[in-house]
Amino acid sequence: MKKLVNLEFSDGDFHLGFGNNKFQVKTTDMRCNFKQTTITLPPAPDIPSTYEKWKQVYDWLTSSDTRGGFKKTQTNFSPSECNKLARNLHEELNQWLSPLQLQLNSVFKLSPDSEIHLLINTKNIISDATKDILHKLPWHELDYFLETNSLEAAICFNELKSISQTPQPEEKYIRRARIISIFGDNRDIDTKADEAILNKLKQRGGELIVLQQPQRPDLVKLWDEPCDILFYGGHSNTTRSYQSGVIYINSDDYLDLQEIRKTFRASVDKGLKLAIFNSCDGLGLARQLADLNLPYVIVWREPVPDEIAQKFLEYFLNSFTGGKSLFKSVREARDKLQELTKNTDIEKQIPGVSWLPIICQNTVDVPPTWKDMGGLTGKVPNCPYKGLSAFTEEDADFFFDRDEFIEKLVKAVNTKSLVPIIGASGSGKSSVVFAGLVPQLRNIGKVQIVSFRPGDNP
Predict the structure, then answer these.
(1) Per CATH, which fold does 177-373 belong to?
(2) Torsion sign (Cα): 324, 328, 330, 331
(3) Left, alpha or beta for 428 (phi > 0: left; psi -120 to 50: alpha)?
């Protein structure tokens, strides 16, 4: 059973407190219960400074390995100091939120099958600095939910509303989940790993449109092609105003999303439901996309080490394409980053890094599932038939109906010093050699096999 908890902040700050915050709880069972009240959160002046201290240590520990940022000189900061500050922040956050946890205890009781979506809405807060801290706190760390491990949080920048999207023409063929992936500037990071993870979605009914270090005109695909998910891997950052962000689409150019507002509006209107920015410091990007009514966005709230960004993406997609909800998939990916690592792995050396991915929700509409988008929750077996592609040696078990010709080739190779195979383009010369002749020669043994192809300038 899903329980939706909406905490809508009134204006305030950490020094004076937040009064008359709207608190709503809705259960999505057959009765669809709905309760609303107000709560007051007391002053908590230490929380911003504790977060900034943790962030300072975190930045020094990760500065040489992040998706964005520059290497710094060595300091005396250590993982143990980072861990101490992370624990302090956890304790201060739970103490501050004790009025919220008392309200939760009076509204519903947790069960093992509960799935809690906590939405933090900051639209009424005037101070950008206060909003920024609220957006970065580890809300999923509430002790009240530790026993069931069922909580995942999202942040909301604006008034929630239903997103109206233009109905698309009925598909003549089987619907597939369509992903546009943009791989931007990859200096000092490995976006090939992200690409390999996304390529696995093809076995789950995904269709990929890939833009490698695109020029601006290449982004017309985002305008013209209906898609369900937008993925970006590369460098990014949030501006000092907290209101916007930039992505580095190639090694020579960066892009403020404000510059392609109409492109994103067209994409949302055609059905874009989810954007994933597997890049650094993405809250500014999420803020801009909220203004454009993109339903759901996943970003990292601070710079992130390359290896961790890759693991999170893999863990999240495994859960999401396996049939889990969007919120549960993020929670499972976060938990795996925390627990399924060795003491020598980078996740263990940087306490708090698993806090950093966050869902940004901009709609009252139910989060989409992979199946909703047309994806498959079970893997599609590899098709043994190559179509117009050439068979390789690995495909020998599926290559058939050329036995007589292959037998002649084997005899010719054993008796002649040169055996050319000549035929029209596309007639199957490569297939008969690599999937037919070569495996036969390997079985014979004592044959040296060398394969090479001429390049563009042979």
Answers:
(1) Rossmann fold (3.40.50)
(2) negative
(3) left
Every domain of the chain and the residues it spans: 2-156, 177-373, 382-457
Return d(Cα 329, Cα 347) in angstroms, integer: 19
Distance from the Cα of residue 152 to its chain's centroid: 15
Tell me the pLDDT of the chain (458 aa) as tens digits: 788 999 999 999 999 999 988 888 887 654 567 788 899 999 999 999 999 999 999 998 887 566 654 344 455 678 899 999 999 999 999 999 999 988 888 877 777 778 889 999 999 999 999 999 999 999 999 988 876 778 999 999 998 887 766 655 555 445 689 999 999 999 989 999 999 999 999 989 999 999 999 999 999 999 999 999 999 999 999 987 778 899 999 999 999 999 999 999 999 999 999 999 999 999 999 999 999 999 999 999 999 999 999 999 999 999 999 999 999 999 999 999 988 776 667 667 788 999 999 999 999 999 999 999 988 776 666 666 677 678 888 888 888 888 888 888 889 888 888 989 998 888 888 888 898 888 888 888 778 888 877 766 65
Q: What is the 3-state secondary structure (H, E, C) of the chain?
A: CEEEEEEECCCEECCCEEEEEEEEEEECCCCCCEEEEEEEECCCCHHHHHHHHHHHHHHHHHCCCECCCCCCCCCCCCHHHHHHHHHHHHHHHHHHCHHHHHHHHHHCCCCCCCEEEEEEECCCCCCHHHHHHHHHCCHHHCHHHCCCCCEEEEEECCCCCCCCCCCCCCCCCCCCEEEEEEECCCCCCCHHHHHHHHHHHHHHCEEEEEEECCCHHHHHHHHHCCCCEEEEECCEEECCCCCCEEEEEECCEEEEHHHHHHHHHHHHHCCCCEEEEECCCCHHHHHHHHHCCCCEEEEECCCCEHHHHHHHHHHHHHHHHCCCCHHHHHHHHHHHHHHCCCCCCHHHHCCCHHHCEEEEECCCCCCCCCCCCCCCCCCCCCCCCCCCCCCCHHHHHHCCCCHHHHHHHHHHHHHCCCCCCCCCCCCCHHHHHHHHHHHHHHHHCCCCCCCCCCCCCC
Task: Tell me which amino acid residue 98 is.
Answer: S
Tokens of 425: 């383009």
Instruction: Pick the closest to residue 223 from 267, 178, 185, 261 (CA basis).
Output: 267
Task: Quote the CA–CA distance of 347 and 65 in Å, as a whole number.
Answer: 12
∠ Cα 206 208 211 (to 5°): 160
